[in-house]
Amino acid sequence: MKQWIDVQDQSAIAVVRRFAQRLATRHGWPKLRVDELAIVATEATTNILRYAGKGRVLINAMPEPEGEQIVMVFTDRGPGISDLDNMIQDGVSSGDSAGLGLGAIQRLSNSFDIFSGPETGTTIVCSFTKGDAAPGYGIDAIGLRVCHPNERVCGDHFLLRQTPKATDVLICDGLGHGPEADAAGQEVREAVLHSRASNSEPGAVMGEVTEQLVGKRGAVAALVHIAQPEMTLRYAALGNIATLRVRGDEIKRLPVRDGRIGARTTRGYEESFDLEPGDLMILHSDGLRTLRDNFLPQGLLHKSPLLIAGYLLDRAFRGRDDASIVVLRLARETLR
């Protein structure tokens, strides 16, 4: 289940804690790590009630089906945390929580980030790994997805593959929502995974996949290949997946070709360009509204990819379809 969990009263604390525990246990996580996830889930959910009165939580395991990483997003529309530096100290906590504070949440997580203010409310994101953290290759990348509020499965899918030589991304949106959309999205994901075309040629991969799936229910999709250490990007897209490159204050929206996988064979719209250290890439399905200034408050795009993804998946979520987002940032100093 990939749904937002509403936090409106004390009962939500147990719901979020149990969901985190069950998800980690299902993927065979060690008991100590399951217990640490439960502590973080309890403390962060309590903070939502304490400071904002209500909010919501999203918990995703990835990659699927392995579940080697679990990410949590805690978000609210409250007044923000006025003394953030103090609250991040261990032992400082909301009055009725576990008494551990944001500092302990940070310490128990593999990664932690927070965005808080009177105009934005508070968003806290944490990531956890089952074992040793994956090595970094100069690109910080994360994906999140959430299903239609009335569904339990998600028709949006994404794929992230990173090696020392390249980062490859697929994001696709199966037609409609529910089990049939989920199956359509999985068909595209599997076709990309097993494509005979080179990953460095997203257009060729798109052409092969569209040919293979002609007559199927179908999906819209975007493929990105970033060659390393050259830091050149190649891109192919078909249908309404939005792809943005953020460089400083400039936001470039990449064009797409109308259509869908399942209709006819095509390579989609293709483009290539050089990237620079610090560049940010955002890809999302139409389950999110168009990302304009009202969804991009000052300071947000300088936060971690997980924080950006979690904040936007909450604030721009249409609430009537599945939604997915992938965010990547090149290191300020790229690996050579």
TrEMBL record:
Alphabetized UniProt keyword annotations: Kinase, Transferase
Residue intervals of the PPM-type phosphatase domain: 140-330
Coiled coil: none
GO MF annotation terms: kinase activity
InterPro entries from the UniProt entry: HATPase_C_sf (IPR036890), HATPase_dom (IPR003594), PPM-type-like_dom_sf (IPR036457), PPM-type_phosphatase-like_dom (IPR001932), Ptase_RsbX (IPR039248)
Name of one Pfam family that matches: HATPase_c_2
Superkingdom field: Bacteria
Record field: transmembrane: none
Protein name according to UniProt: Anti-sigma regulatory factor (Ser/Thr protein kinase)
Taxonomic placement: Bacteria, Pseudomonadati, Pseudomonadota, Alphaproteobacteria, Rhodobacterales
